[in-house]
Amino acid sequence: MRFKKPIVYIFSVFILFLILMYIKNRHIDSNAETTRNLQVAVSNTSNAVPNQNEIVIVVVSCGMRQQETLNLLKSAIIFGLEHRLRFVVITEDNLMAGFREKLEDWSNIVKNKFTYEVLPLTFPKENEGEWRNLFKPCAAQRLFLPAILTDIDSVLYLDTDTLFISPVHDVWKFFQEFNSSQIAALSPEHEDENVGWYNRFSRHPYYGKLGVNSGVMLMNLTRMREFKWNLYMLPLYKEYKLKITWGDQDLINILFAYYPDKLHIFECQFNYRPDHCMYMSVCDAPHGIQIVHGNRGYFHSEKQPVFSTIYRLIEEYQLGTDIYRNIVAPLESAFASEDIRHTSCGKITDKFLKILKQTFQENTLYYDEDSS
């Protein structure tokens, strides 16, 4: 009989152990199921491909950039084709009325082609003055788009000195190529390390071997908010502000240097700059040049007149008229002149014309009959 109590004790401990293991396993299973549900919810949100029928274009315009900005938006209307566009213009208070007036005029000409909204500048209160004047007036606004445009999933951000010469959807569809971790897409800053700026002069981290250029940027704002993008900006600025040269572009390079898996890279023809042809042709663009970027004032100088000629013809074009007759044919004629042919970029004018000529044939009009 003296063994009865120890046996009962051992049996009780064993039963208690089984009960505890059962509870623990149920708890683990429950947590695992909850985690799976959360992962599915996040995955369904993060991996959603942006609306393919509406393309959201964001531009920030300050100072003397209003006409340049309007020319960019006009080029988007020309090459929007069957896709509906949504323009978000962020600008200074004194420029807002002018943007609204011109965009409303255009909206009456090309009905149902685009919607628009004109918003005021919004910067964090901390270091607001420095953010406003970082590199160029209000250029840093782009860094805070995820926190400002909370109702928008994804956008195509463009510098004011860019122009479409191919369908807008061609760059927008890169969103479909994002993997599950990528939050943005950019093109390389350079193609040749012998003339690269970041690899030769930078005093801060930068993406990849040659850095990236931020003039054309696809931004999945939903994923950027999940990544807590805005929380990185101020610490990075405080740490590197004495070492950056190109303002917001440098901060973007620094962030993606630390998180390279978050960035998708697209080809140079979607951000084609004078650097790609002024010394020698370093951007293959086998399918043609698609977005031109006249940085450093090349739209407004005759250093490489290919760029200023494209800008001028789009500026002179009247929406609703024959695109072939008023843009394509005059551009082809201008490119045949000696003034352009003898320049470095003038030697590859076929790449500037290729998609234009494919897109618009002779006598094609770009507006609906009921909107004329």
Summarize the structure.
This protein is α/β, with parallel strands linked by helices. It contains 14 helices and 9 strands. It has helices at residues 4-46, 66-78, 93-109, 128-132, 145-148, 169-172, 198-201, 221-226, 229-240, 248-258, 305-316, 323-335, 338-341, 349-359, and strands spanning 54-61, 84-91, 114-120, 154-158, 162-164, 184-188, 212-220, 263-265, 291-293.
What features would you describe in this structure?
This protein is an alpha/beta fold and 372 residues long. The chain folds into two domains: 54-268, Spore Coat Polysaccharide Biosynthesis Protein SpsA, Chain A (Alpha-Beta Complex), CATH 3.90.550; 274-370, no CATH class. Helices cover 43% and strands 14% of the residues. The protein has helices at 4-46, 66-78, 93-109, 128-132, 145-148, 169-172, 198-201, 221-226, 229-240, 248-258, 305-316, 323-335, 338-341, 349-359; strands spanning 54-61, 84-91, 114-120, 154-158, 162-164, 184-188, 212-220, 263-265, 291-293. The strands form two sheets. The protein has a seven-stranded mixed beta sheet with strand order 3-2-1-4-7-6-8, sandwiched between helices. Strands 5-9 form a two-stranded antiparallel ribbon. β1, α2 (66-78) and β2 form a beta-alpha-beta unit. α11 (305-316) packs antiparallel against α12 and α12 runs antiparallel to α14 (349-359). The longest helix is centred in the N-terminal third of the chain and has 43 residues, at 4-46. Mean pLDDT is 87; it is low at 26-45 and 367-372.
